[in-house]
Protein backbone atom coordinates (compact mmCIF):
# COMPACT_ATOMS: atom_id res chain seq x y z
CA UNK A 1 0.00 0.00 0.00
CA UNK A 2 1.50 3.35 -1.05
CA UNK A 3 2.04 6.04 1.55
CA UNK A 4 -0.29 9.07 1.44
CA UNK A 5 0.81 12.13 -0.54
CA UNK A 6 1.49 15.07 1.78
CA UNK A 7 3.44 17.50 -0.44
CA UNK A 8 2.78 18.93 -3.90
CA UNK A 9 6.40 18.12 -4.78
CA UNK A 10 5.39 14.43 -4.73
CA UNK A 11 2.87 14.96 -7.57
CA UNK A 12 5.31 15.47 -10.48
CA UNK A 13 4.22 19.05 -11.09
CA UNK A 14 6.60 21.41 -12.87
CA UNK A 15 8.56 24.16 -11.03
CA UNK A 16 6.38 27.02 -12.39
CA UNK A 17 3.23 25.43 -10.95
CA UNK A 18 4.94 24.58 -7.66
CA UNK A 19 6.14 28.17 -7.39
CA UNK A 20 2.58 29.43 -7.89
CA UNK A 21 1.22 27.06 -5.26
CA UNK A 22 3.72 28.42 -2.77
CA UNK A 23 2.76 31.99 -3.60
CA UNK A 24 -0.98 31.41 -3.19
CA UNK A 25 -0.48 29.57 0.11
CA UNK A 26 -1.12 25.95 -0.94
CA UNK A 27 1.43 24.01 1.09
CA UNK A 28 -0.06 20.50 0.98
CA UNK A 29 -2.67 18.89 -1.30
CA UNK A 30 -6.21 18.26 -0.12
CA UNK A 31 -7.42 14.63 -0.27
CA UNK A 32 -9.14 15.08 -3.64
CA UNK A 33 -6.08 16.82 -5.11
CA UNK A 34 -3.74 14.08 -3.90
CA UNK A 35 -6.06 11.40 -5.36
CA UNK A 36 -6.97 13.00 -8.71
CA UNK A 37 -3.81 14.77 -9.91
CA UNK A 38 -1.77 11.59 -10.59
CA UNK A 39 -4.60 10.02 -12.64
CA UNK A 40 -5.15 13.16 -14.74
CA UNK A 41 -1.41 13.64 -15.27
CA UNK A 42 -1.27 10.08 -16.60
CA UNK A 43 -4.05 10.87 -19.10
CA UNK A 44 -6.73 8.67 -17.54
CA UNK A 45 -10.43 9.47 -17.63
CA UNK A 46 -11.74 10.19 -14.16
CA UNK A 47 -14.93 10.20 -12.08
CA UNK A 48 -14.49 12.32 -8.97
CA UNK A 49 -17.22 12.28 -6.33
CA UNK A 50 -16.72 15.11 -3.84
CA UNK A 51 -18.62 18.00 -2.35
CA UNK A 52 -18.11 21.54 -3.59
CA UNK A 53 -15.48 23.26 -1.48
CA UNK A 54 -13.04 20.35 -1.21
CA UNK A 55 -10.43 21.84 -3.56
CA UNK A 56 -11.51 20.03 -6.72
CA UNK A 57 -10.83 22.99 -9.05
CA UNK A 58 -7.11 22.69 -8.36
CA UNK A 59 -7.48 18.90 -8.61
CA UNK A 60 -8.22 19.19 -12.34
CA UNK A 61 -6.70 22.58 -13.22
CA UNK A 62 -3.14 21.79 -12.11
CA UNK A 63 -2.65 18.50 -14.05
CA UNK A 64 -4.37 19.88 -17.17
CA UNK A 65 -2.15 22.99 -17.11
CA UNK A 66 0.83 20.64 -16.83
CA UNK A 67 -0.19 18.87 -20.06
CA UNK A 68 -0.75 22.02 -22.16
CA UNK A 69 1.23 22.85 -25.27
CA UNK A 70 1.60 26.62 -24.87
CA UNK A 71 2.78 27.02 -28.48
CA UNK A 72 -0.61 25.80 -29.70
CA UNK A 73 -3.27 28.50 -29.22
CA UNK A 74 -6.22 26.28 -30.14
CA UNK A 75 -8.50 25.24 -27.24
CA UNK A 76 -6.91 22.22 -25.57
CA UNK A 77 -9.09 22.10 -22.44
CA UNK A 78 -12.87 22.63 -22.25
CA UNK A 79 -14.49 22.98 -18.83
CA UNK A 80 -18.31 22.89 -18.64
CA UNK A 81 -19.96 24.50 -15.60
CA UNK A 82 -23.64 24.92 -14.70
CA UNK A 83 -23.55 28.69 -13.98
CA UNK A 84 -21.78 31.80 -15.24
CA UNK A 85 -20.55 32.53 -11.68
CA UNK A 86 -18.80 29.18 -11.51
CA UNK A 87 -17.40 29.64 -15.04
CA UNK A 88 -15.80 32.93 -13.99
CA UNK A 89 -14.49 31.41 -10.77
CA UNK A 90 -12.91 28.43 -12.55
CA UNK A 91 -11.39 30.68 -15.23
CA UNK A 92 -9.88 32.89 -12.51
CA UNK A 93 -8.43 29.81 -10.82
CA UNK A 94 -6.77 28.67 -14.07
CA UNK A 95 -5.37 32.16 -14.58
CA UNK A 96 -4.04 32.25 -11.01
CA UNK A 97 -2.35 28.83 -11.21
CA UNK A 98 -0.83 29.67 -14.62
CA UNK A 99 0.74 32.97 -13.60
CA UNK A 100 4.24 31.61 -14.33
CA UNK A 101 3.28 29.96 -17.64
CA UNK A 102 4.22 32.52 -20.32
CA UNK A 103 1.61 33.18 -22.98
CA UNK A 104 -1.16 31.22 -21.27
CA UNK A 105 -4.72 32.36 -22.01
CA UNK A 106 -8.05 31.21 -20.56
CA UNK A 107 -11.43 32.37 -21.84
CA UNK A 108 -14.75 32.17 -19.95
CA UNK A 109 -17.82 32.11 -22.22
CA UNK A 110 -21.37 32.31 -20.90
CA UNK A 111 -24.76 33.75 -21.69
CA UNK A 112 -25.37 37.39 -20.90
CA UNK A 113 -21.90 38.45 -22.03
CA UNK A 114 -21.42 40.17 -25.37
CA UNK A 115 -21.06 37.64 -28.17
CA UNK A 116 -18.86 40.13 -30.04
CA UNK A 117 -16.33 40.17 -27.21
CA UNK A 118 -16.29 36.37 -27.05
CA UNK A 119 -15.82 36.07 -30.81
CA UNK A 120 -12.88 38.49 -30.73
CA UNK A 121 -11.12 36.54 -27.99
CA UNK A 122 -11.82 33.20 -29.64
CA UNK A 123 -10.16 34.51 -32.82
CA UNK A 124 -7.10 35.47 -30.78
CA UNK A 125 -6.91 31.96 -29.35
CA UNK A 126 -7.23 30.42 -25.90
CA UNK A 127 -5.59 27.36 -24.38
CA UNK A 128 -8.50 26.77 -21.96
CA UNK A 129 -12.18 27.56 -22.51
CA UNK A 130 -14.53 27.55 -19.51
CA UNK A 131 -18.21 27.88 -20.34
CA UNK A 132 -21.83 27.13 -19.65
CA UNK A 133 -23.42 24.47 -21.88
CA UNK A 134 -25.81 26.82 -23.69
CA UNK A 135 -23.20 29.33 -24.80
CA UNK A 136 -20.71 26.59 -25.73
CA UNK A 137 -23.40 25.05 -27.95
CA UNK A 138 -24.01 28.45 -29.59
CA UNK A 139 -20.35 28.74 -30.53
CA UNK A 140 -20.15 25.15 -31.76
CA UNK A 141 -23.16 25.71 -34.03
CA UNK A 142 -21.59 28.95 -35.34
CA UNK A 143 -18.28 27.06 -35.76
CA UNK A 144 -16.57 29.87 -33.83
CA UNK A 145 -15.38 27.35 -31.22
CA UNK A 146 -13.26 24.68 -32.88
CA UNK A 147 -12.44 21.60 -30.81
CA UNK A 148 -10.13 19.77 -33.25
CA UNK A 149 -7.15 20.22 -30.92
CA UNK A 150 -9.03 19.41 -27.72
CA UNK A 151 -7.15 17.17 -25.28
CA UNK A 152 -9.32 17.25 -22.15
CA UNK A 153 -12.93 17.92 -21.13
CA UNK A 154 -14.02 18.60 -17.55
CA UNK A 155 -17.63 18.33 -16.40
CA UNK A 156 -17.73 20.36 -13.18
CA UNK A 157 -20.68 19.94 -10.78
CA UNK A 158 -22.38 17.48 -13.11
CA UNK A 159 -25.26 16.86 -10.68
CA UNK A 160 -26.01 20.59 -10.67
CA UNK A 161 -26.06 20.57 -14.50
CA UNK A 162 -28.53 17.68 -14.32
CA UNK A 163 -30.72 19.57 -11.85
CA UNK A 164 -30.74 22.63 -14.12
CA UNK A 165 -31.71 20.57 -17.16
CA UNK A 166 -28.37 20.76 -18.99
CA UNK A 167 -27.46 17.08 -19.07
CA UNK A 168 -28.73 16.56 -22.66
CA UNK A 169 -26.73 19.63 -23.73
CA UNK A 170 -23.64 18.13 -22.11
CA UNK A 171 -24.25 14.89 -24.00
CA UNK A 172 -24.58 16.86 -27.27
CA UNK A 173 -21.31 18.73 -26.65
CA UNK A 174 -19.35 15.58 -25.75
CA UNK A 175 -20.46 13.93 -28.99
CA UNK A 176 -18.73 16.76 -30.88
CA UNK A 177 -15.37 16.41 -29.14
CA UNK A 178 -12.48 14.32 -30.52
CA UNK A 179 -12.82 10.65 -29.58
CA UNK A 180 -9.29 10.46 -28.10
CA UNK A 181 -9.84 13.31 -25.61
CA UNK A 182 -9.60 12.81 -21.86
CA UNK A 183 -12.78 13.34 -19.77
CA UNK A 184 -12.96 14.19 -16.07
CA UNK A 185 -16.40 14.23 -14.44
CA UNK A 186 -16.90 15.75 -10.98
CA UNK A 187 -20.14 15.48 -9.05
CA UNK A 188 -21.24 15.56 -5.41
CA UNK A 189 -23.75 12.77 -6.11
CA UNK A 190 -24.06 10.11 -8.80
CA UNK A 191 -27.68 9.83 -9.98
CA UNK A 192 -28.43 7.42 -12.81
CA UNK A 193 -28.51 10.00 -15.68
CA UNK A 194 -24.96 11.08 -14.81
CA UNK A 195 -23.79 7.47 -14.65
CA UNK A 196 -25.24 6.96 -18.15
CA UNK A 197 -23.28 9.96 -19.47
CA UNK A 198 -20.13 8.62 -17.81
CA UNK A 199 -20.67 5.13 -19.27
CA UNK A 200 -21.25 6.58 -22.77
CA UNK A 201 -18.35 9.03 -22.94
CA UNK A 202 -15.61 7.93 -20.48
CA UNK A 203 -13.11 5.17 -21.23
CA UNK A 204 -12.12 2.92 -18.29
CA UNK A 205 -12.34 5.82 -15.84
CA UNK A 206 -10.52 5.89 -12.53
CA UNK A 207 -12.93 6.56 -9.67
CA UNK A 208 -12.17 8.80 -6.69
CA UNK A 209 -14.63 9.30 -3.86
CA UNK A 210 -13.82 11.72 -1.06
CA UNK A 211 -15.71 11.61 2.21
CA UNK A 212 -15.81 15.09 3.73
CA UNK A 213 -16.39 16.01 7.32
CA UNK A 214 -20.03 16.88 7.76
CA UNK A 215 -19.95 19.42 10.54
CA UNK A 216 -17.83 21.60 12.75
CA UNK A 217 -17.78 21.42 16.53
CA UNK A 218 -21.02 22.62 18.11
CA UNK A 219 -19.19 24.59 20.81
CA UNK A 220 -17.92 27.16 18.25
CA UNK A 221 -20.10 30.20 17.54
CA UNK A 222 -19.65 31.09 13.84
CA UNK A 223 -20.19 34.59 12.43
CA UNK A 224 -19.16 36.47 9.31
CA UNK A 225 -18.54 40.12 8.45
CA UNK A 226 -18.86 41.30 4.85
CA UNK A 227 -15.73 43.38 4.46
CA UNK A 228 -12.80 43.34 2.06
CA UNK A 229 -9.59 44.88 0.82
CA UNK A 230 -8.20 47.95 2.52
CA UNK A 231 -10.97 47.87 5.16
CA UNK A 232 -10.12 44.45 6.63
CA UNK A 233 -7.41 45.73 8.96
CA UNK A 234 -9.76 48.29 10.47
CA UNK A 235 -12.45 45.60 10.83
CA UNK A 236 -9.98 43.33 12.63
CA UNK A 237 -8.95 46.16 14.92
CA UNK A 238 -12.59 46.76 15.88
CA UNK A 239 -13.11 43.07 16.66
CA UNK A 240 -10.01 42.99 18.86
CA UNK A 241 -11.34 46.07 20.67
CA UNK A 242 -14.77 44.70 21.58
CA UNK A 243 -14.54 40.90 21.72
CA UNK A 244 -13.97 39.34 25.14
CA UNK A 245 -11.08 37.10 24.17
CA UNK A 246 -8.21 35.32 25.83
CA UNK A 247 -6.09 34.60 22.76
CA UNK A 248 -6.79 34.79 19.02
CA UNK A 249 -5.56 32.88 15.99
CA UNK A 250 -5.84 34.95 12.79
CA UNK A 251 -5.63 33.02 9.51
CA UNK A 252 -4.28 34.46 6.26
CA UNK A 253 -3.47 32.76 2.94
CA UNK A 254 0.20 33.60 2.44
CA UNK A 255 3.41 33.79 4.43
CA UNK A 256 3.98 37.38 3.36
CA UNK A 257 0.53 38.37 4.56
CA UNK A 258 1.17 36.69 7.93
CA UNK A 259 4.35 38.69 8.51
CA UNK A 260 2.85 41.95 7.27
CA UNK A 261 -0.36 41.70 9.33
CA UNK A 262 1.52 40.71 12.50
CA UNK A 263 3.76 43.77 12.12
CA UNK A 264 0.75 46.06 11.65
CA UNK A 265 -0.98 44.70 14.73
CA UNK A 266 2.22 45.07 16.77
CA UNK A 267 2.41 48.70 15.62
CA UNK A 268 -1.09 49.18 17.04
CA UNK A 269 0.01 47.96 20.44
CA UNK A 270 -1.07 44.32 20.36
CA UNK A 271 1.07 41.44 21.58
CA UNK A 272 1.33 39.59 18.30
CA UNK A 273 3.51 37.12 16.35
CA UNK A 274 3.51 35.47 12.92
CA UNK A 275 3.51 31.71 12.28
CA UNK A 276 4.27 30.42 8.79
CA UNK A 277 6.16 27.79 6.84
CA UNK A 278 9.32 29.84 6.20
CA UNK A 279 10.09 29.97 9.94
CA UNK A 280 12.50 27.44 11.42
CA UNK A 281 11.01 24.72 13.57
CA UNK A 282 12.67 26.19 16.66
CA UNK A 283 11.16 29.62 16.01
CA UNK A 284 7.74 28.14 15.39
CA UNK A 285 7.92 26.20 18.64
CA UNK A 286 8.97 29.33 20.50
CA UNK A 287 5.99 31.24 19.10
CA UNK A 288 3.60 28.50 20.21
CA UNK A 289 5.19 28.48 23.68
CA UNK A 290 4.74 32.25 23.90
CA UNK A 291 1.06 31.80 23.03
CA UNK A 292 0.69 29.14 25.72
CA UNK A 293 2.40 31.13 28.48
CA UNK A 294 0.53 34.41 27.79
CA UNK A 295 3.55 36.23 26.33
CA UNK A 296 1.68 36.56 23.01
CA UNK A 297 -2.07 37.05 22.66
CA UNK A 298 -2.50 37.05 18.86
CA UNK A 299 -0.86 34.72 16.32
CA UNK A 300 -1.25 35.39 12.58
CA UNK A 301 -0.82 32.07 10.81
CA UNK A 302 -1.04 30.24 7.49
CA UNK A 303 -2.99 26.98 7.28
CA UNK A 304 -0.09 24.54 7.26
CA UNK A 305 1.87 26.35 9.98
CA UNK A 306 -1.12 26.05 12.33
CA UNK A 307 -1.78 22.39 11.54
CA UNK A 308 -1.87 20.40 14.77
CA UNK A 309 -1.78 23.55 16.91
CA UNK A 310 -3.46 22.79 20.25
CA UNK A 311 -3.49 25.72 22.69
CA UNK A 312 -6.36 25.72 25.16
CA UNK A 313 -6.44 29.50 25.63
CA UNK A 314 -7.35 30.21 21.97
CA UNK A 315 -10.85 31.62 22.37
CA UNK A 316 -11.17 33.16 18.89
CA UNK A 317 -10.30 32.11 15.35
CA UNK A 318 -10.52 34.95 12.84
CA UNK A 319 -10.45 34.09 9.13
CA UNK A 320 -8.90 37.32 7.86
CA UNK A 321 -8.67 35.68 4.40
CA UNK A 322 -11.43 33.28 3.46
CA UNK A 323 -10.00 29.75 2.97
CA UNK A 324 -9.84 28.14 -0.46
CA UNK A 325 -12.09 25.23 0.51
CA UNK A 326 -14.45 24.04 3.24
CA UNK A 327 -11.98 21.48 4.60
CA UNK A 328 -9.49 24.26 5.38
CA UNK A 329 -12.24 26.22 7.14
CA UNK A 330 -13.14 23.22 9.30
CA UNK A 331 -9.49 22.72 10.22
CA UNK A 332 -9.04 26.41 11.05
CA UNK A 333 -11.96 26.83 13.40
CA UNK A 334 -11.15 23.52 15.05
CA UNK A 335 -8.29 25.34 16.79
CA UNK A 336 -10.87 26.82 19.20
CA UNK A 337 -13.76 25.30 21.15
CA UNK A 338 -11.57 22.36 22.13
CA UNK A 339 -12.29 19.96 24.99
CA UNK A 340 -15.88 21.16 25.24
CA UNK A 341 -14.94 24.80 25.82
CA UNK A 342 -16.80 27.60 24.06
CA UNK A 343 -15.09 29.24 21.08
CA UNK A 344 -15.78 31.93 18.52
CA UNK A 345 -15.02 31.88 14.78
CA UNK A 346 -15.29 35.04 12.68
CA UNK A 347 -14.97 35.04 8.89
CA UNK A 348 -14.22 38.07 6.72
CA UNK A 349 -16.03 37.76 3.37
CA UNK A 350 -15.69 40.08 0.37
CA UNK A 351 -18.82 40.55 -1.77
CA UNK A 352 -17.33 38.40 -4.52
CA UNK A 353 -16.63 35.61 -1.98
CA UNK A 354 -20.23 35.13 -0.83
CA UNK A 355 -20.55 32.00 -2.96
CA UNK A 356 -17.68 30.40 -1.00
CA UNK A 357 -19.48 31.29 2.23
CA UNK A 358 -22.53 29.34 1.04
CA UNK A 359 -20.29 26.43 0.06
CA UNK A 360 -18.82 26.35 3.57
CA UNK A 361 -22.29 26.44 5.15
CA UNK A 362 -23.41 23.57 2.93
CA UNK A 363 -20.33 21.49 3.69
CA UNK A 364 -20.48 22.06 7.45
CA UNK A 365 -24.30 21.86 7.60
CA UNK A 366 -24.27 24.79 9.96
CA UNK A 367 -25.32 28.41 9.38
CA UNK A 368 -22.79 31.20 9.70
CA UNK A 369 -24.64 34.25 10.95
CA UNK A 370 -23.85 37.84 9.91
CA UNK A 371 -22.41 39.94 12.70
CA UNK A 372 -23.23 43.56 13.46
CA UNK A 373 -20.08 45.69 13.08
CA UNK A 374 -19.27 47.43 16.37
CA UNK A 375 -19.86 51.18 16.24
CA UNK A 376 -17.40 53.76 17.50
CA UNK A 377 -19.68 54.29 20.51
CA UNK A 378 -19.47 50.59 21.39
CA UNK A 379 -15.69 50.62 20.95
CA UNK A 380 -15.39 53.70 23.17
CA UNK A 381 -17.51 51.99 25.82
CA UNK A 382 -15.26 48.91 25.84
CA UNK A 383 -12.16 51.08 26.06
CA UNK A 384 -13.64 52.98 28.99
CA UNK A 385 -14.55 49.78 30.87
CA UNK A 386 -11.04 48.38 30.37
CA UNK A 387 -9.56 51.68 31.45
CA UNK A 388 -11.59 51.66 34.67
CA UNK A 389 -10.70 48.06 35.40
CA UNK A 390 -7.01 48.76 34.83
CA UNK A 391 -7.17 51.56 37.39
CA UNK A 392 -8.90 49.31 39.93
CA UNK A 393 -6.41 46.48 39.34
CA UNK A 394 -3.51 48.90 39.83
CA UNK A 395 -5.00 50.23 43.08
CA UNK A 396 -5.38 46.67 44.38
CA UNK A 397 -1.93 45.43 43.36
CA UNK A 398 0.48 48.37 43.72
CA UNK A 399 1.85 50.47 46.60
CA UNK A 400 0.76 53.98 45.59
CA UNK A 401 2.10 55.90 48.62
CA UNK A 402 4.74 57.86 46.68
CA UNK A 403 2.18 58.85 44.04
CA UNK A 404 -0.28 60.01 46.71
CA UNK A 405 2.45 62.38 47.86
CA UNK A 406 3.00 63.65 44.29
CA UNK A 407 -0.70 64.37 43.85
CA UNK A 408 -0.88 66.10 47.25
CA UNK A 409 2.08 68.32 46.32
CA UNK A 410 0.44 69.43 43.07
CA UNK A 411 -2.86 69.97 44.87
CA UNK A 412 -1.26 72.24 47.50
CA UNK A 413 1.21 74.08 45.23
CA UNK A 414 -1.26 74.84 42.43
CA UNK A 415 -4.53 74.95 44.38
CA UNK A 416 -5.96 72.29 42.06
CA UNK A 417 -8.36 69.57 43.16
CA UNK A 418 -7.29 65.94 43.16
CA UNK A 419 -10.17 65.25 40.75
CA UNK A 420 -8.74 67.70 38.17
CA UNK A 421 -5.27 66.15 38.57
CA UNK A 422 -6.70 62.65 38.06
CA UNK A 423 -8.58 63.83 34.95
CA UNK A 424 -5.37 65.29 33.49
CA UNK A 425 -3.49 62.06 34.17
CA UNK A 426 -6.29 60.02 32.57
CA UNK A 427 -6.10 62.24 29.48
CA UNK A 428 -2.34 61.72 29.19
CA UNK A 429 -2.67 57.95 29.50
CA UNK A 430 -5.41 57.57 26.88
CA UNK A 431 -3.94 59.75 24.11
CA UNK A 432 -2.58 56.77 22.14
CA UNK A 433 -5.98 55.01 22.30
CA UNK A 434 -8.64 57.68 22.89
CA UNK A 435 -11.57 56.81 25.10
CA UNK A 436 -13.74 59.12 23.01
CA UNK A 437 -13.63 58.06 19.35
CA UNK A 438 -15.86 60.32 17.22
CA UNK A 439 -18.11 58.42 14.82
CA UNK A 440 -17.39 60.94 12.06
CA UNK A 441 -13.71 60.03 12.04
CA UNK A 442 -14.29 56.39 11.11
CA UNK A 443 -13.71 55.04 7.64
CA UNK A 444 -16.59 53.12 6.11
CA UNK A 445 -15.60 49.47 6.32
CA UNK A 446 -18.77 47.54 5.56
CA UNK A 447 -20.32 46.71 2.24
CA UNK A 448 -23.37 44.61 2.92
CA UNK A 449 -25.08 45.29 -0.39
CA UNK A 450 -25.17 42.61 -3.09
CA UNK A 451 -22.29 42.56 -5.54
CA UNK A 452 -24.57 43.58 -8.42
CA UNK A 453 -25.75 46.67 -6.57
CA UNK A 454 -22.19 47.54 -5.59
CA UNK A 455 -21.13 47.28 -9.21
CA UNK A 456 -24.10 49.40 -10.36
CA UNK A 457 -23.21 52.10 -7.84
CA UNK A 458 -19.57 52.00 -8.89
CA UNK A 459 -20.55 52.47 -12.52
CA UNK A 460 -22.97 55.31 -11.77
CA UNK A 461 -20.28 57.25 -9.96
CA UNK A 462 -18.20 57.50 -13.10
CA UNK A 463 -20.76 59.60 -14.95
CA UNK A 464 -19.33 62.96 -16.03
CA UNK A 465 -21.61 64.97 -13.72
CA UNK A 466 -20.28 63.10 -10.70
CA UNK A 467 -16.68 62.44 -11.65
CA UNK A 468 -15.40 65.70 -10.19
CA UNK A 469 -17.18 65.02 -6.90
CA UNK A 470 -15.41 61.69 -6.57
CA UNK A 471 -12.05 63.21 -7.46
CA UNK A 472 -12.59 65.93 -4.88
CA UNK A 473 -13.65 63.43 -2.21
CA UNK A 474 -10.64 61.25 -2.85
CA UNK A 475 -8.30 64.15 -2.06
CA UNK A 476 -9.11 63.77 1.62
CA UNK A 477 -6.48 61.03 1.82
CA UNK A 478 -2.98 60.86 0.36
CA UNK A 479 -3.33 59.53 -3.18
CA UNK A 480 -0.93 57.65 -5.40
CA UNK A 481 -1.12 57.31 -9.16
CA UNK A 482 -1.03 53.84 -10.71
CA UNK A 483 -0.67 52.64 -14.31
CA UNK A 484 -3.02 49.99 -15.70
CA UNK A 485 -2.15 48.07 -18.86
CA UNK A 486 -5.58 48.48 -20.46
CA UNK A 487 -6.71 51.36 -22.64
CA UNK A 488 -8.91 52.46 -25.52
CA UNK A 489 -7.65 49.71 -27.82
CA UNK A 490 -8.87 47.11 -25.31
CA UNK A 491 -12.29 48.74 -24.96
CA UNK A 492 -11.65 49.89 -21.36
CA UNK A 493 -13.98 52.49 -19.85
CA UNK A 494 -13.96 54.29 -16.48
CA UNK A 495 -16.95 52.15 -15.48
CA UNK A 496 -14.95 48.96 -16.10
CA UNK A 497 -11.98 50.21 -14.09
CA UNK A 498 -13.98 51.50 -11.12
CA UNK A 499 -16.08 48.34 -11.01
CA UNK A 500 -13.04 46.04 -11.13
CA UNK A 501 -11.11 47.91 -8.42
CA UNK A 502 -14.14 48.43 -6.17
CA UNK A 503 -15.17 44.77 -6.30
CA UNK A 504 -11.78 43.08 -6.34
CA UNK A 505 -9.78 45.30 -3.95
CA UNK A 506 -12.64 46.28 -1.68
CA UNK A 507 -11.90 49.98 -2.19
CA UNK A 508 -15.09 52.01 -1.91
CA UNK A 509 -15.63 53.71 -5.25
CA UNK A 510 -15.73 57.09 -3.46
CA UNK A 511 -12.02 56.72 -2.82
CA UNK A 512 -11.11 55.93 -6.42
CA UNK A 513 -9.83 59.20 -7.86
CA UNK A 514 -8.94 60.55 -11.26
CA UNK A 515 -8.95 58.09 -14.19
CA UNK A 516 -7.27 58.83 -17.53
CA UNK A 517 -7.64 56.35 -20.39
CA UNK A 518 -4.94 56.38 -23.08
CA UNK A 519 -4.61 54.30 -26.21
CA UNK A 520 -2.88 51.26 -24.69
CA UNK A 521 -2.86 52.04 -20.96
CA UNK A 522 -4.71 54.00 -18.27
CA UNK A 523 -3.88 55.75 -15.00
CA UNK A 524 -5.90 55.88 -11.79
CA UNK A 525 -5.45 57.61 -8.43
CA UNK A 526 -5.95 55.35 -5.39
CA UNK A 527 -5.43 55.89 -1.64
CA UNK A 528 -1.85 55.50 -0.49
CA UNK A 529 -1.04 52.53 1.76
CA UNK A 530 -2.32 49.67 -0.40
CA UNK A 531 -1.10 46.35 1.02
CA UNK A 532 1.26 44.16 -0.98
CA UNK A 533 -1.36 41.40 -1.11
CA UNK A 534 -4.04 43.63 -2.65
CA UNK A 535 -1.48 45.11 -5.06
CA UNK A 536 -0.48 41.64 -6.28
CA UNK A 537 -4.14 40.63 -6.58
CA UNK A 538 -4.96 43.71 -8.68
CA UNK A 539 -2.21 42.77 -11.12
CA UNK A 540 -4.28 39.71 -12.07
CA UNK A 541 -7.70 41.39 -12.11
CA UNK A 542 -9.00 41.58 -15.67
CA UNK A 543 -10.81 44.38 -17.49
CA UNK A 544 -12.14 43.44 -20.93
CA UNK A 545 -10.33 40.10 -20.53
CA UNK A 546 -6.97 41.88 -20.11
CA UNK A 547 -5.02 41.76 -16.81
CA UNK A 548 -4.55 45.18 -15.23
CA UNK A 549 -0.85 44.52 -14.46
CA UNK A 550 -0.99 47.52 -12.14
CA UNK A 551 2.23 49.42 -11.40
CA UNK A 552 2.98 52.40 -9.19
CA UNK A 553 3.83 55.75 -10.80
CA UNK A 554 4.12 58.04 -7.75
CA UNK A 555 2.12 60.76 -5.98
CA UNK A 556 -1.01 61.85 -7.85
CA UNK A 557 -1.32 65.32 -9.36
CA UNK A 558 -3.46 66.63 -6.46
CA UNK A 559 -0.90 65.24 -4.00
CA UNK A 560 1.94 67.00 -5.80
CA UNK A 561 -0.16 70.16 -5.94
CA UNK A 562 -0.27 70.30 -2.16
CA UNK A 563 3.45 70.92 -2.16
CA UNK A 564 3.16 73.94 -4.48
CA UNK A 565 2.26 77.50 -3.45
CA UNK A 566 -1.46 78.23 -3.51
CA UNK A 567 -2.99 79.88 -6.53
CA UNK A 568 -0.81 78.29 -9.20
CA UNK A 569 -3.63 77.49 -11.56
CA UNK A 570 -6.14 74.80 -12.35
CA UNK A 571 -5.91 71.06 -12.78
CA UNK A 572 -6.72 69.89 -16.31
CA UNK A 573 -8.02 66.39 -17.06
CA UNK A 574 -7.46 65.51 -20.71
CA UNK A 575 -8.83 62.55 -22.58
CA UNK A 576 -6.13 61.54 -25.10
CA UNK A 577 -8.79 60.03 -27.36
CA UNK A 578 -11.23 62.93 -27.56
CA UNK A 579 -8.87 65.80 -26.94
CA UNK A 580 -11.48 67.36 -24.66
CA UNK A 581 -10.48 69.11 -21.50
CA UNK A 582 -12.20 69.33 -18.16
CA UNK A 583 -11.10 72.05 -15.75
CA UNK A 584 -11.37 71.62 -12.01
CA UNK A 585 -10.59 74.29 -9.40
CA UNK A 586 -7.47 73.33 -7.51
CA UNK A 587 -8.35 72.74 -3.86
CA UNK A 588 -6.78 75.41 -1.65
CA UNK A 589 -7.49 73.66 1.66
CA UNK A 590 -6.85 70.06 2.56
CA UNK A 591 -9.43 68.50 4.83
CA UNK A 592 -8.27 66.39 7.70
CA UNK A 593 -7.31 62.91 6.54
CA UNK A 594 -9.46 60.11 7.81
CA UNK A 595 -7.53 57.65 9.93
CA UNK A 596 -8.03 54.16 11.27
CA UNK A 597 -9.80 54.13 14.58
UniProtKB/TrEMBL annotation:
SUPFAM superfamilies: P-loop containing nucleoside triphosphate hydrolases. GO terms for cellular component: cytosol; ribosome. GO terms for biological process: cellular response to cold; ribosomal large subunit assembly; RNA catabolic process. The keyword Metal-binding does not apply. Residues 37-208 form the Helicase ATP-binding domain. Pfam families: DbpA, DEAD, DeaD_dimer, Helicase_C. Residues 438-473, 550-597 are annotated as: Disordered. It catalyses: ATP + H2O = ADP + phosphate + H(+). Residues 6-34 form the DEAD-box RNA helicase Q domain. One of its GO terms (molecular function) is ATP binding. Keywords: ATP-binding, Cytoplasm, Helicase, Hydrolase, Nucleotide-binding, RNA-binding, Stress response. It is found in: Cytoplasm. Residues 234-379 form the Helicase C-terminal domain. Its EC number is 3.6.4.13. Belongs to the DEAD box helicase family. DeaD/CsdA subfamily. This is ATP-dependent RNA helicase DeaD. The lineage of its organism: Bacteria, Pseudomonadati, Pseudomonadota, Gammaproteobacteria, Candidatus Competibacteraceae. The gene is deaD.
Amino acid sequence: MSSPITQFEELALSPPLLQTLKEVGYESPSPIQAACIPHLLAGHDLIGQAQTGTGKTAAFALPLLERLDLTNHQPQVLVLTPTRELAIQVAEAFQSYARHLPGFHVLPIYGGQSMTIQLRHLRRGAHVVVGTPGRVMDHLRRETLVLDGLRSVVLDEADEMLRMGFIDDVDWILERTPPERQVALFSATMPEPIRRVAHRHLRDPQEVKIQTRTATVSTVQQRYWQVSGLHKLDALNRILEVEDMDAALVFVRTKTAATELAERLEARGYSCAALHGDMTQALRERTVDQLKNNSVDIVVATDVAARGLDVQRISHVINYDIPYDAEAYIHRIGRTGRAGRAGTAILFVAPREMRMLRVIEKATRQPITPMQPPTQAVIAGHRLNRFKQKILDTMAAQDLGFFHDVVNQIEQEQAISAQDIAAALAYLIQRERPLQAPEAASVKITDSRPTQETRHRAESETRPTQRRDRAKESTDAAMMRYRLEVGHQHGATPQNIVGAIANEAGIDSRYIGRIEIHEDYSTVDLPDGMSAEIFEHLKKVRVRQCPLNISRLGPSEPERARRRPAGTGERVARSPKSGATEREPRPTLRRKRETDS
